[in-house]
């Protein structure tokens, strides 16, 4: 194995080891075990749960460590709480280990870089440093991670997993590679690698001229001749050594050292020269700083020029658009002119054909020999027509040529001229058509004359043949006649020849004119083709520019739309965050005010208790003094009654019993005083104990308030750092809610509370009742006892009015509007009503700050001082429920005012059995909702089993039947025993008692004394005593208040609204909805909606959000608020209360 192969192997092993370490660190570095034999693979970022069941051996659940820590923070009873305490330390060690791995990777890269430099001959050939660092760093990181990971009280739950084993195995491999390097390869590396590799770069070898003088070039380092052969001597010595030549090792080393010292001096000189060149470069860089500033100014100028060019391009695009419009008009005119030119050429061809026909006719006439004269008028007309045609052709030709030559540069003028020329050509064609008709008439006349002449010629020849002799005598007369006719014919023929000659001249002229016209037409056609080509190229350029412009416009529109959408989302998120921040600020302020008032009240209470304690201590000291005084009196009397002898016997001494009897007989007044003092002392001690418990409760309340305040502060800080995404769907859970606090929002997240706020029918800030109250003068708060009575009367009157409105099919009024009329009717006078209204609002504001359950309920009912008011429809339902509760509420006439006030400040109380029957009536169509409501009323009670027994056995006891009757009723198969399944189903479904499955199973486990899974008659009768439970159902443990019942209904209603919102939100896949998408989505939910109603909803939502489009959240709120498509109704409909 040579050195290079070892280096490659070492670097590859380190890279592979690092990848294994990263994988094991992230997923399976530690192994944890819980008390339930649950195996966990713990990494830095995730944790995997292995199922212990044999049926699910391959099942593995994986989650993030951050999610596990969040669950541990939320749930204090989490089974893996001990593991959560150790995880931060494990993560700290993991991050330290990541830093170590980064250092290790740096060492690996350094090794690779050093190896590359050694290969290229630029390095000194020393490579051992990183080989030493890699396993050392890995060992330190492993030890530190092991110490950090297993440190703590819960270390027994954690053991090193497969990741730690991998790490130690990898470290051993690296250590072995390092030892192999130092023990085997280092000596070979020093000798062989330096001898057989090139020790000096080529550019360091000096160059010599032929003359022997040294010529220093740009790469000359000032080496001598001896230095040139340094590498050769070393190679030669190595070769001699390899061939077996024995050389003195000491002298060889000395020579090598001398050579190296000289080389080192030369390298130092070279280093100095490099430093000088470095200084020169620095100076050059300092001198180039003004040039850089100049370049920056030039860049700014170029940017301004680019901006100007962009504007010019924009203007050029606009001009191109205008030019395109003009070119389209020119193209349209050219097509028209092309058609006209084709018509002109066809007319010219027809004219040439007519002229050829005329020439042919004239030639036939000329060859006929003799013909008669024809009408002079027709000849004159022909001459006149030919002359006019020639003149018009000449004029049109000259006009066409002159226009083609003068208006060639202007396209529009040429087209106008072509239009005019076309009109002239039309006139010429009409004249030529007329002339053709006249020529045809002349042709027909000439043919008739020619036929007549031929007939006469034939007749004359026949006469000469019949009478040749007689002709001799007749010759003179006929000759005279013939000569006369011949002279006339010759004259006419000459005239006719002249006419033909003239016509031929005209014909040649016409041909020349036609050729000129054809040439001009060809030029025009060429110009038109050239213009068409130019127009085509211009169109193509314009089309490409137009495509680029359209593409740019599309991109610009797309970017603008994306920006508008993004801007709308940002504005919506900003509005949501602003609303959330305002809500959090108001809530924090309310919590701070409530906490301050609670602390102040607790402080005052503590001071009052301290004063009472001092008073009772003084009373106690007085009682002690009185006791001492009476003891002294008792001793005195005892001394008087005892015998005075110096040695009294036992017989004459009085026993304590006799002394007490004697004391009671002699002076009863003192005995009574002692008894009174004893009772007073015991009462003082009891009261002191009660005060101590009250102080402890107040201190616990203060601690809880401080914790709530701290959590709210942390939530505000987290919201500032991490804004809530508008598009994220809410995870619906049903966590616990405080027992008597509707203002407590532990069962809802901040986003869910914002959803419930948005569903309100009235805005708290625009409440007319609040506006009226704020305008009144300040009044002292109303006494709380009077406030409870007034609000109970208000709710009863509102319930009556709501029933009347529903019977008349009118929408019930809001409680805030009804309150103003109620106060006037209750107190009679407007001024007194306003005064009491102001006092009532002051008291409700104080109760809301103190988070009083009943006070918070009234604030939500009236939409005062609370951000989540109750809607109108659900308030009608709640008022009906409270009216039914008043019917089952027990009498509040108790012996002590404190106990009486403790009940009325929560609206009265009733037995859980009676409340269960009330819920069964109200929620008769929704059993699952009713069971959750009943369980939610007492879910914070510590005696859950006792309450479950009261609900089941108390209900049975109210029927006045014996336990045996119910057992036989549940025992369907008459086996005198009930298994758990029969008992649970019998209670829940046969008897119709609304309890959950878990409660029924807990009752089974309580009655099953021997835990065999079967309930016998003996166990049932032995455990169940109806007389006891008949009394217990009206004891304090079985009592629930009205505010507990109402808050349970409110919690269930709000959670159902959240469920409807989440279902509806999952159906919307858009980031924002315009009007078309809004209408489409709304029609999918409620097809019966009309168009104007949908438009009205869209405008309302858009106005509330202050954006161009509507967000999916706003759409869902609009659907829930208007109860469209079955959403927003829940399980609490007013029609369910019709028969109650």
Automatic annotation (TrEMBL):
This protein's UniProt keywords: Calcium, Coiled coil, Membrane, Transmembrane, Transmembrane helix
InterPro entries in UniProt: EF-hand-dom_pair, EF_Hand_1_Ca_BS, EF_hand_dom
Annotated GO MF terms: calcium ion binding
Domain of life of the organism encoding this protein: Eukaryota
PROSITE patterns cross-referenced by the UniProt entry: EF_HAND_1 (PS00018), EF_HAND_2 (PS50222)
Record keyword Coiled coil present: yes
Region of interest (Disordered), ranges: 206-225, 373-401
EF-hand domain mapped to chain residues: 958-993, 995-1030
Ion transport found in the keyword field: no
Transmembrane segments: 12-30, 95-119, 131-151, 163-184
UniProt feature, compositional bias: Basic and acidic residues: 373-395
Stretches assigned to coiled coil: 257-333, 486-534, 574-640
Protein name, entry field: EF-hand domain-containing protein
UniProt organism field: Stentor coeruleus
């Amino acid at each position: 194995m040579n050195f290079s192969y070892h280096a490659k192997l070492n670097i590859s092993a380190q890279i592979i080891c690092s990848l294994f370490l990263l994988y094991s660190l992230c997923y399976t570095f530690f192994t944890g075990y819980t008390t339930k034999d649950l195996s966990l693979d713990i990494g830095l970022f995730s944790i995997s749960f292995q199922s212990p069941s044999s049926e699910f051996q391959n099942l593995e659940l994986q989650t993030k460590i951050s999610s596990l820590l969040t669950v541990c923070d939320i749930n204090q009873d989490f089974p893996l709480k001990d593991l959560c305490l150790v995880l931060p330390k494990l993560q700290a060690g993991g991050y330290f280990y990541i830093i170590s791995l980064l250092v290790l990777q740096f060492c690996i890269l350094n090794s690779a870089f050093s190896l590359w430099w050694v290969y290229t001959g630029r390095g000194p050939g020393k490579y051992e440093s990183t080989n030493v660092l890699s396993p050392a760093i890995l060992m330190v990181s492993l030890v530190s991670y092991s110490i950090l990971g297993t440190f703590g009280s819960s270390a027994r739950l954690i053991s090193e997993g497969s990741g730690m084993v991998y790490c130690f195995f990898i470290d051993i491999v690296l250590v072995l590679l390092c030892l192999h390097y130092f023990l085997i390869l280092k000596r070979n590396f020093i000798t062989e690698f330096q001898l057989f590799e090139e020790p000096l770069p080529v550019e360091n070898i000096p160059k010599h001229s032929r003359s022997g003088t040294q010529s220093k070039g740009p790469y000359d380092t000032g080496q001598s001749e001896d230095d040139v052969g340094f590498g050769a001597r070393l190679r030669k010595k190595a070769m001699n050594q390899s061939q077996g030549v024995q050389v003195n090792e000491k002298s060889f080393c000395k020579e090598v050292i001398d050579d190296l010292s000289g080389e080192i001096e030369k390298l130092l000189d070279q280093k100095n020269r490099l430093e000088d060149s470095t200084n020169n470069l620095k100076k050059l860089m300092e001198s180039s700083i003004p040039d850089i500033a100049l370049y920056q100014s030039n860049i700014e100028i170029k940017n301004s020029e680019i901006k100007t060019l962009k504007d010019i391009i924009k203007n050029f695009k606009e001009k191109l658009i205008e030019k395109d419009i003009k070119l389209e008009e020119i193209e349209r005119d050219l097509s028209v002119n092309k058609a006209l030119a084709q018509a002109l050429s066809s007319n010219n061809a027809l004219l040439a054909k007519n002229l050829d026909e005329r020439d042919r006719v004239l030639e036939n006439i000329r060859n006929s020999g003799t013909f008669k004269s024809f009408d002079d008028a027709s000849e004159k007309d022909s001459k006149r027509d030919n002359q006019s045609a020639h003149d018009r052709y000449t004029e049109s030709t000259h006009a066409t040529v002159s226009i083609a030559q003068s208006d060639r540069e202007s396209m529009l003028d040429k087209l106008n001229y072509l239009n005019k020329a076309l009109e002239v050509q039309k006139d010429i064609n009409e004249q030529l058509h007329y002339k053709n008709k006249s020529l045809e008439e002349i042709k027909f006349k000439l043919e008739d004359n020619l036929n007549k002449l031929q007939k006469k010629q034939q007749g004359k020849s026949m006469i000469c043949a019949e009478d040749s002799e007689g002709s001799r005598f007749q010759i003179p007369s006929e000759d005279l006649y013939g000569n006369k006719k011949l002279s006339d014919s010759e004259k006419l023929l000459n005239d006719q020849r002249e006419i033909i000659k003239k016509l031929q001249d005209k014909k040649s002229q016409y041909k020349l004119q036609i050729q000129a016209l054809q040439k001009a037409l060809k030029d025009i056609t060429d110009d038109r083709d050239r213009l068409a080509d130019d127009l085509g190229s211009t169109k193509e350029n314009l089309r490409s520019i137009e495509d680029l412009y359209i593409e740019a416009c599309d991109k610009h529109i797309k970017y603008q739309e994306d920006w508008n959408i993004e801007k709308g989302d940002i504005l919506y998120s900003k509005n949501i965050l602003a609303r959330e921040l305002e809500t959090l600020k108001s809530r924090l302020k309310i919590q701070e005010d409530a906490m301050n008032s609670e602390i102040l009240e607790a402080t005052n209470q503590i001071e009052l208790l301290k004063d009472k304690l001092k008073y009772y201590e003084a009373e106690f000291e007085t009682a002690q003094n009185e006791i001492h005084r009476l003891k002294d009196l008792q001793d005195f009397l005892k001394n008087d009654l005892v015998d005075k002898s110096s040695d009294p016997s036992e017989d004459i001494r009085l026993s304590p019993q006799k002394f007490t009897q004697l004391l009671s007989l002699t002076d009863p007044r003192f005995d009574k005083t002692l008894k009174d003092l004893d009772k007073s002392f015991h009462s003082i001690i009891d009261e002191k104990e009660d005060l101590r418990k009250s102080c402890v409760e107040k201190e616990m309340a203060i601690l809880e308030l401080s914790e709530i305040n701290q959590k709210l502060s942390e939530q505000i800080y987290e919201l500032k750092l991490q804004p809530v995404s508008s598009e994220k769907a809410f995870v619906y859970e049903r966590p616990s809610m405080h027992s008597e606090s509707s203002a407590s929002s532990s069962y809802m997240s901040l986003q869910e509370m914002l959803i419930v706020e948005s569903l309100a029918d009235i805005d708290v800030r625009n409440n007319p009742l609040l506006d009226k109250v704020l305008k009144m003068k300040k009044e002292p708060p109303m006494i709380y006892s009077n406030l409870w009575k007034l609000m109970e009367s208000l709710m009863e009157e509102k319930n009556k009015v709501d029933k009347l409105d529903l019977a008349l099919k009118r929408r019930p009024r809001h409680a805030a509007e009804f309150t103003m009329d109620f106060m006037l009717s209750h107190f009679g006078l407007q001024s007194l009503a306003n005064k009491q209204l102001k006092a009532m609002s002051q008291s409700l504001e104080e109760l809301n700050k103190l988070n009083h359950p009943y006070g918070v309920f009234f604030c939500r009912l009236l939409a005062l001082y609370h951000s989540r008011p109750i809607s109108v429809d659900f308030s009608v339902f709640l008022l009906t429920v409270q009216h039914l509760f008043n019917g089952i509420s027990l009498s509040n006439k108790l012996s002590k005012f404190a106990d009486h006030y403790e009940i009325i400040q929560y609206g009265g109380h009733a037995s859980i059995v009676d409340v269960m029957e009330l819920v069964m009536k109200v929620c008769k169509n929704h059993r699952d909702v009713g069971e959750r409501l009943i369980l939610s009323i007492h879910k914070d009670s510590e005696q859950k089993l006792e309450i479950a027994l009261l609900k089941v056995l108390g209900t049975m006891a109210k029927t006045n039947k014996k336990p045996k009757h119910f057992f036989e009723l549940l025992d369907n198969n008459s086996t005198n025993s009930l298994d758990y399944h029969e008992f649970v189903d019998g209670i829940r479904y046969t008897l119709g008692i609304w309890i959950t499955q878990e409660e029924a199973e807990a009752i089974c486990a309580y009655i099953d004394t021997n835990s065999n899974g079967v309930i016998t008659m003996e166990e049932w009768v032995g455990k169940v005593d109806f007389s006891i439970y008949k009394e217990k159902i009206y004891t304090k443990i079985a009592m629930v208040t009205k505010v507990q019942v109402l808050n349970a209904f409110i919690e269930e209603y709000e959670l159902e609204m959240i469920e409807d919102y989440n279902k509806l939100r999952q159906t919307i896949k858009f980031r924002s909805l315009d009007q078309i998408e809004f209408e489409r989505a709304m029609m999918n939910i409620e097809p019966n909606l009309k168009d104007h109603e949908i438009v009205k909803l869209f405008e309302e939502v858009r106005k509330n959000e202050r954006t161009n489009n509507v967000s999916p959240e706003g759409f869902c709120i609009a659907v829930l608020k208007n109860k469209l498509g079955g959403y927003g109704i829940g399980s609490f409909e007013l029609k369910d209360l019709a028969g109650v």
